[in-house]
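Ticket #4471: structure export looks truncated?
Reporter: QA, pipeline team
Priority: medium

Steps to reproduce: submit the single chain below to the structure queue and open the exported record.
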Amino acid sequence: MQPNDKARELGVCFEPQAPGYLNMCVRSGNLLITSGHVSDIKGVLGKDLTVEQGYEAAAECVRKILRSVFNTHGTLNDLKVLKVLGCVYSAPEFVEQHLVINGCSDLLHKVFGKEGDGFHARSALGFAALPTGAAVEVEAIFEIKGG
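Actual output as written to the record:
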């Protein structure tokens, strides 16, 4: 099964998006670089939300990223995930940002393959606040294979 099919099966919407204030995904050479995509789930990890809720928020972010990438590039089938930055709205004592951002990485592994094009570099960081009170914000860099 191709990444486009896997993504659809996992709930990714490919409907066109109206242009916004910022470019949600830009192409430079053979790279696709996304803006940060925030979760609709709001709250502070370690205070209002559990790791499991944060995990779902991170998965929600990557679904939005894949939609933006698809709308920019027209397919997911020829891509390799290079780098992910996951930002977690965290209480001061919260130290499980990596487990939250696994929600993003696990979905990318399912779409692109953990052993192949979905095996990526990643940072998972805690923040005192995120835009709109979002629990998670994620940005990513993809390589267009053969591009």
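Status: closed, not a bug. The export was complete when the record was re-opened. Leaving a note from the reviewer for reference: Residues 40 and 54 are 11 Å apart (CA to CA).
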